[in-house]
Each structure stands twice: as C-alpha cells, then as structure tokens.
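Preliminary data (for renewal application), FE2/S2 (inorganic) cluster complex.
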Amino acid sequence: MDITLNVNGRPEQFSAQPNELLVERLRDGLGLTGTKVGCDTGQCGSCVVRLDGRSVKSCLVLTASAAGGEIATIEGVTTRGGELSGLQEALRQEHGTQCGFCTPGMVMALGELVDATADGPAPTEPEIREWLTGNLCRCTGYHSVVRGVQRACAAHRDEVPAGSAASTAAAPEV
Amino acid sequence: MTTVTGEAPADRGGVLGQPLDSREDPQLLRGEATYVADIDLPGTAHMAILGSPVAHARILSIETKAAEQLPGVLKVATAADFADVMPLPCIWIPGGVESHFPPHPYGLPGARPVLTGDTVRHVGDPIAVVVAETPRQAAAALAAIAVEYEPLPVVTRADEALADGAPQLHEAVPGNLNAYWTCGDKDRTDAAIAAAEVTVELDLVNQRTINSPIEPRGAVGDYDPATGEYTLYASTQGPHNHRFLLAALVLGIPFNKLRVIAPTVGGSFGTKGYLYPDMPLVLLLSKALGRPVKWVDTRTGLMNSTVQGRDHRQHVTLAGTRDGRITAVRCTSYANLGAYPSTIGPGVATALMGRSISGMYDIDAAFCEVYAAFTNTVSLGAQRGSGRAEAAFLMERLVDRYASEIGMDPAAVRRKNLVPKEKFPYDNGLGWTYDSGNYQLNFDKAIELSGYADMSARKAEARTRGKRLGVGIATYVAICGVGPSTRMSQEGMLGGTWESANIRVHPTGEVTVTVGSASTGQSHGTVFAQVAADELGIDPETVQVHEGDTQKAPYGQGTYGSRSYSMAAPAVALTARKLKAKLVRAGAVFLGVPEDKVVYEGGAIHEEGNPENTKTFAELAMAMWYGWGLPPEIEPALDETTHFDPPDFNYPFGTHVAVVEIDELTGETEVVAYTAVDDAGNIGNPKIVQGQIEGSIVHGLGQALLEVAEYDENGRLVSADLGHYALPRAADVPFFALDKTVTPSPHNPLGAKGAGEIATVPPAAAVVNAVVDALSDLGVRHIDMPLTPEKVWRRLRGESQ
Ligand code: FES
Ligand code: FES
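Predicted structure:
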C-alpha cells in the first residue's frame, strides 16, 4: 500500500506491506537507525519516537496506521554533531547515559514530558519516574536520567534543579 | 565528607580524579553511535537461527528443502555443513580438580558445536540457520524447516542432575558432574563447627538470572575473497579474546586473517564476552555466499541463548561464640552450568564464588565445595558481580542468622569480625590475599550515613502506616583486576589476562591512546584520556582514545570483572611514563644540558633552575618527529606500548544498608532508602563511577525483588521476554545515599581497584536481610529471592516457605 509520512519535517512517500512495523520503516526503509530495537514484545522503550507529538513505541505501531502522521525521531532532535537540545544537554551534564542503547528512546519519551509540563510546574521526582516506566535502562539505574530531567526542567524555568548532583543530600560523593 | 586514606589522584591537581563530563555522551544522546544492528555493509544477507523448541531430545531428521524454496532464501545450513568446524571451547575450567568435559580437538575442554546435529540439550540450542535477502525472509523460512525429535527426559536443577537415575546430558560426563571443586581447609572448618558454641545453617537458592543488556547481541561476518581475510563485527566485550578463540580454537585459520571489531556496544554486564555459535556462523556463511552476513538477536532469542547468571543451591553453615566472634564458615554448593560449558562459566561458578565467601570478615576456618553440574538449561556465565555476589549473599545471610541466634545487633556482630587494618595484606584462607583495606572506616561510615541508630523509631512510625520497616546490612569484598596471568593459569584460565596500551604523540602535539580493552558503556574514551593527560601534563582535550578493533589496537582481554580501570588504565599510565622518560633523555639534547638537569613538568621540559630554557610539549612532539640531531641511542618519534600484568588482583570492598517497607496488606516490598559506601581505591572519574555504582545497585535490587529465570518441568524458560522477566524500572527505586572510602591498591601504578560492577555484589543480601528483619517477629528466618509480593504476603499470613 502507498503511504505518506512526515518524518522529522520531511515528507516521505513509499509503499509498504500491511504488516510492516513503523520501526522497520524508520530503521531499514529510511535508514534512521538512531531508533533502537531492544525487545520484541513492546516492553523496553528503546524504539520510542513521537507520532503527532505523543511518544509511541514504534515496534508496536504499524506503518500503515501511522499514515499521514508527523513522526519525530532522535535524528530530528538535533543535527548530526549538532548542538544538543536542552534536555539532551541536561542529561549530558548528569551523565544520564552509559551504553546509550536506551538513550534515544528515553530522549524521545522524556521530550514529551518536558514539553507537556513546560507551562506549568516542573514534574516531581515520582512523576518523572512514573513517566519513565515504559523505558528500560540496565546501565544507569535511572538516577542520572531522573536528575537530568530535573535539571532540564529547572533550566527551562531558570531554577536550581531539585535533585541535581549539585543540590541534594542524595547526591552521592563517589 | 570523603575520608581519604591514601593519596587521591585529585590531590595532585591533575585531571585524573576529576568528574569530567563523559565525552561519549553527546554522540549517544544524539542517537548517532553505531551498534552492530546499525551496520549495513553493501550486499548484506541476513541470518536467522533455528533454536530447539524442546529442552532435551535426539534429532531424528532435519528436512530443509521446503525452506530452501522460499522467496529470498539463499542458504539453509545444518550441522552437516560445518562438520570440520571445531566446537566452541571452554577456556576456564576450575583449576586443580578433575574435570569432565566433552572433548575439543585441541585437547581443550569444549563441547558446544556451532550447530547441533544429533542431540539438543536446551530450549534454544541452535539446530539450523537460514540466510536470506531480508531479516523477515530469513525468519519466515525457519518455520519451514521440519525437525523430528525423539524426546529425552529433562533435568533443570543442578542437585537433581547429580542424583542417581537423572537424565544424562553428555556421554563424556558421567553423572552430569563437570567438576567437584573445593577451597579452604575442610578438616579445620569441620572441627571448628563441631566444637562451636553456636552454629547456624541455611539452605539458600541463589536463583538464576538473566543479565539483559538492553542491546541484544548481534554479529556481522564479512569475508574478502581477494585477501582471504575475515572481518567480524560483533557486540563483544573482548574483541581480541574473540579473535583468539575464533581463529585459533574454532575456525583454525591464521590469526592474522581475522579482524574483530567491536562497534558501540549496548551494555553487557558479562554476557558479551562469551563465544557464541553465531560468531563463527556469520563468518563461514559470508565466505560460502560471497556476501556479508548479518545476524541480530531478538530479546526472546537472547533469553534462550545468551549466558545466564548465578544459579547456586547451597547449604551453608556458620559457627561462632556466644559473644559474637565468628569462628568458621562452610558452604556446599550445587552450581548449575547449563547444557554446555560456556567460555568461562565453570570458573565463575567455582573460584569466583568459593574463594570469596568469607568477605570482609577475619575467620579462622573456612571451606567451600562446589558440585558443578550440567542441566537442560541455557549455559551459565558471568552476570554483573558474578561469583562475588553469590558469595556475599550467603555470608551476609549467615551473619544475620547468627546475630539473631545470639541476640546481638547485626551491625555489632559485623563490626566485631571485620579484618583489622593491621592485617593487610590479608590471606583469607580460601585463596585470595586481600591487598589493602580499612574495613572499619568504611563500615562505620555506611552505618552512620544510613541513620542506623534511628531505625527502631522509624520502625514504630512505619507500623502506624500499616507498613513493616526492616533494615539490612551487607558488606562485601570483590576480587577484581583479572588478572595476573600466571595466577589465573593456576585457576585454570587459558590465555594471558594482561592488558595493553599504546600512546602515539603526533607531530603537532596531539595524542592518540589505543587500548586493548573495549567499552560497553563505561566512557573509556573519557577516562583513558584523563589518565594519559594527567601523566603527560597535557590538556585531555588533545587526547583521543581508540579501542575495539583488533587491527588497530594492541592486544588486551577486554572489559570484564571491573578490570579496565585497574588493568588498561595502568597500561596507559605506564606508557605515558615511558614517553616522559624518553622526552627527558631527548630533552637533554634539545636543551643542551645533562639529563639530570631536565625537568618534566606541566607538559613541558625545562632546565633545572633555568625556566627560560624550555620546550613545550608541542615543540617536543615536532622535534621528535623530525628526529634531527638525536643521538643514535634515541629513536625518533614518540610511540610507546606497555603490556601490563599486575603482581596480584585487587580487592574493592564496601558496606551497603537497605531500608525496606513491607505493606502488611499486599506484601509489597518497597526499598525506601539505600546507603552504599564503596571503596574502589583511587578513582579516575567520580562522575562516571557514580553512574556505574547507581546502575549496579539497581541491578542487584532487581535480583532481590524481581528477577528470576524460571524453567518449567519441561525445561522451557517461562520468563523468556521482558513481560515475564521483570527488570527494575525507574519507579522501583529511590535515590541512594552514596559515599566512598579510598584505599589505594598497591598492585597497580594508579592505586586503582575495580569499580564498575562492585556495587552489584551486596544489594541482594542487604534487601533480603532487611525483609527478614521486618518479618522476624513472625518467626521468618529466610525467604528465597525474588521477594515477590505474593511470597512475602504468604509469610505475613504465617505460611512457611
Ligand atoms: S523495541 Fe522494545 S519496546 Fe519497542
Ligand atoms: S544506558 Fe545502557 S541501557 Fe540505558
């Protein structure tokens, strides 16, 4: 079937099998390999992209059902070698990635949280943790990721981040 | 707040010890790093593996014709196609014991064929492969391969595999017993236990777990008929070791015809250092088809094929006095090696565990015996903290049992038995000689930081909210820095376990460091640059680090057992020192002064007492590149290599305290506070180590609360996807309170000890101790992991285990 998608602001037209997964189209069809595949049952979140603004697991979305949609992948967040987004920069400062395999999915999922809360109060630590339950990370133990989100939200609001390494007793001195 | 008991590198004012941002992170955060699944060589064909659906059976026939006819299929291969390929060897058989293995042609222990043709021994055992134009076509064709099986009886537990009449896995291994291995002094220990005022015993199950890096494994083989060279891209922790194993011991091809490249690797925690059938298969099939062949595992595939961890059933005994002095510890363990000996699994299940059981305690008599058995399960291997976590678990559970038996505070019992500071180096009587330590300082710091003194008040408060609060302590010593090659050979390891580094200074003063190790997410590029820059007195921004390609890097074993910073980083430091020494010798010529008047400082040289007579690092680099005016005994260029083999292991240690709350209605256990004080000697980059410690603790909490690789009676892995195998999620853990002590190791020039995985060692013990503490008034003395709500709820209702 013929399908049109808008991927990172670029219109893409192609024909796809009805059972093709969005993640296959992105990785194999369009060469956007920043989106990762960590499981085959929709549990790990490595494949998260944004579809019409909402973060979705692209291994659970059929390409056909996304037809006409706006897709944002990690490649669309910044250019290759380009300046990091506010969220990415905050994660960098908190060392919120180790092997990096879960990271693109985390950045995409957390991007929605940061956007959704941009005009209100910053998300609390439990809210951030709850938001992250769809993304598995085996390296970091999540703490640096949570601190990164806190830092990103605080930077956005010109505040000192609540849970950052610089400001809490939980901040380990290792 | 940090107490430093030795020279901390940060004190020298250099860049080592500073929390520099990881230079790898931006690329990872932008999703630009290339993992094996992202490699797309022109003309690539795709491989899929048919794993056995049954745990134990004789293969009567395999019919591949239908699969061969399917669209896109290029080749279907079975064991018969690889008759001249050697089986995958095991290179760590426990030292000093009689060991039974199915044979490998080189007289090595081995057994696992690249594909099995006659008998399958676990679900997932590879039987056939399909190569097709697309991954989907390859996977679809697997379904068209018809295999006829004659079922055989199944055994999945080590103790049951050793019983009379148990199903037999390997003809060469009578009774399924791979090895009976011991360490320590049996007679002395038995006597101490017999004579003791108090003895306590426990039967423990250290359940099987699955490492579960988020990146599944993958491999791309690329044979070049023009040169006869093979290239393997693989998600590996040790490209050099894989090259050795594959070239010399499996394929039987010249070493210099195989290049192994580790691209960015998405976590490993022990599992990606092993040799798997897919590695030789993609190489052989690439040669056969004249195209690159690529294979990427699925999660379910990984769970049924990649080495699993832990899996000991133990009977353990501790003896002591009424006033809290431990006099003996004894462990009898049944270790489940799975269906085949993995690359180093048998060593992990014996020496790493057995020699570590006495932990931080000064115990007069200790003994451990391990029966390592084959069963119809996935092969056993390393899992973050492997061996040492199993040891800490049994010891720390025993100490709590003992404390409760004699009515003494568990912290007080531990404090009383710590190895005293004056006793280092300390021979633990089980085969390890601990290098250095200040256990009292470390222990006291953790106890204080955790607020241990206030726990009874907190327990009372929790009860008003329908919660039972419990506190659990666990200490540990983790052997790291594998290793001294000769010592490892005594343990039964085949192969040198040293590490190496090369530093090349370019004409314009920039520096390239190349190491044999290979990162799986530990920011080696950042830390090794810090080491070189610190030694040379230059800006780390001018240092690039390369690793993970056997054609470009010097040899090295790779990253495992938390070894890179205490094995590869010292090689970097020693190489930098060689360069400095050369610059001093050559500097005498350039400055026109005797050698002993040349001072190397801050990345430049000057004449002693005459700072005007100087040359910068960049000037020296250019001068050495030109080589003009150098005497014959000084070679031009700045390019040095070091192979570092330490005199002995190093022994990080620490104390963790878990506080849990159990919901009296649901049995749910929540970790509400967690304190960890770890001692990894001198640390190169505290920010990076902090991340590893946090991740390690969460991994350990996973074993305590969530994770179990569960096999049903037919040998089927029930928990074969991430819906059934529960990994910790962000909402499962609180922030931790972390601190450190610093006791440098004397066994390497950086005073470093292992760090990466050490904090995985104690959490399971700390959490189970905490839960048993919370339930102790109900008479609960032990609960097996994982501590699921149902299990805890049953105990709350008074049911026994
Ligand atoms: S790949 Fe795991 S959730 Fe999509
Ligand atoms: S950084 Fe490795 S899985 Fe998250």
